[in-house]
Design a protein that fits this description.
CATH architecture of chain A: Orthogonal Bundle
Number of domains of chain A: 1
CATH topology of the largest domain in chain B: mini-chromosome maintenance (MCM) complex, domain 2
Distance between the termini of chain A: 26 Å
Strand content of chain B: 35-45%
CATH class of chain A: Mainly Alpha
Helix content of chain A: over 70%
Oligomer: heterodimer
Order of helices and strands of chain B: HEEEEEEEEH
Number of strands of chain B: 8
CATH superfamily of the largest domain in chain B: N-utilization substance G protein NusG, insert domain
CATH topology of chain A: Arp2/3 complex 21 kDa subunit ARPC3
Radius of gyration of chain A: 17 Å
CATH architecture of the largest domain in chain B: Sandwich
Number of strands of chain A: 0
Shape of chain B: globular
Structural class of chain A: mainly alpha
Largest sheet of chain B: 4 strands, antiparallel
Largest interface: A-B, 35 and 32 residues
Number of helices of chain B: 2
Structural class of chain B: alpha+beta
Helix content of chain B: 25-40%
CATH class of the largest domain in chain B: Mainly Beta
Order of helices and strands of chain A: HHHHHH
Radius of gyration of chain B: 18 Å
Number of helices of chain A: 6
Strand content of chain A: under 5%
Chain lengths: ~180, ~130
């Protein structure tokens, strides 16, 4: 009985963390859309929501993080997206999720959060460009990839630094006990 | 920051620069012979809407359909999105495009502008029997 209680307790905590992270990620994307940022690369964003995805991947299992990514993308699409923009963001989000999950599995000791978030950002860009290629039926869109790569490095560094501060402070909270890797 | 991170950053920057730097040279070379005019292909929903020659004189092209309105302006051998009634205005941030391969995209309106180089037409011109 005690053991069963503990298990359902963990499951409940997981659900709560996924919900909180998804909500914070949505808020971060809203904040991001308020920041007028034009760095000469069309469509380039800071990718603040990536902070939450990476932190979630660090604490929880891959399927929970996947759930969080889907929730976040759906919520943002409902709040300010159209159907086509939803297709693009889900494509980018899934690419970035898979890339970061894979790197956390194999490269945890070789790469820090900065490296992982850079790859995540770049995978997000590639996912969106691939979606655009299918949508417009042309490969010429990849013309913008080099500029997006440079932006991905810069924003990835910023996101990685944020995660490096966020993970230790969250680890001190009682909610995250039992999830420390 | 670990060594792997620095390696990764270096690798990505080198790959990106390897694509960007040749384009600068390409641009310098093509600025000398402006007599070869480029064309911009405007497509809506994957279907060709119009092909315009990028002249120095100003021309305004209005693209209006069930998705919305986009106003494109051609000037100084290039093209730019002048105004649009889409919600995100990302297409306006593409700015003035004048290089071959350059594109302007308005996602909500399914509109795409691609610049095609003069070399392709030269290729067709050469096949005279």
């Amino acid at each position: 009985m005690q053991r069963l209680n503990e298990q359902s307790n963990i499951a409940l905590k997981r659900t709560v963390i996924v919900a909180i992270f998804a909500a914070v990620a949505v808020v971060l994307s809203m904040v991001e859309s308020l920041i007028p940022l034009n760095m000469g690369v069309p469509g380039a964003k800071l990718g603040l929501a990536n902070i939450m995805v990476l932190t979630c991947l660090y604490f929880l299992r891959a399927r929970d993080a996947m759930m969080m990514v889907l929730l976040k993308t759906l919520l943002t699409a409902f709040i300010f997206g159209t159907f086509s923009s939803f297709l693009f963001s889900i494509m980018g989000a899934l690419f970035s999720f898979v890339a970061m999950w894979f790197l956390l599995l194999i490269g945890r000791d070789k790469l820090s959060f900065i490296g992982i978030s850079i790859v995540g950002g770049i995978a997000h860009n590639i996912g969106q460009l691939t979606a655009a290629c299918i949508y417009f039926n042309t490969t010429k869109i990849f013309y913008y990839l080099p500029m997006l790569l440079i932006m991905g490095v810069l924003t990835g560094i910023a996101v990685g630094i944020a995660v490096r501060y966020l993970v230790p402070s969250l680890s001190k909270m009682s909610l995250f006990e039992g999830f420390l890797a | 920051m670990k060594r792997g991170d620095l390696l990764l950053i270096g690798l990505v920057v080198i790959i990106a620069l390897a694509f960007i730097i040749p384009r600068w040279f390409d641009r310098d070379a093509s600025e000398k012979n402006h007599n070869e005019l480029r064309t911009a292909k405007i497509t809506v929903d994957g279907k060709l809407f119009k092909e315009v020659t990028l002249t120095q004189e100003e021309q305004t092209i209005e693209v209006e359909n069930e998705h919305g309105l986009n106003i494109l302006k051609v000037h100084d051998y290039g093209i730019e999105m002048f105004d649009a009634d889409c919600p995100d205005k990302v297409c306006l941030s593409f700015g003035f495009v004048d290089r071959t391969g350059g594109t302007i995209i308005c996602l909500p309106h399914k509109l795409m502008v691609e610049i095609e180089g003069p070399s392709e037409e030269d290729g067709i011109d050469a096949t005279v029997k």
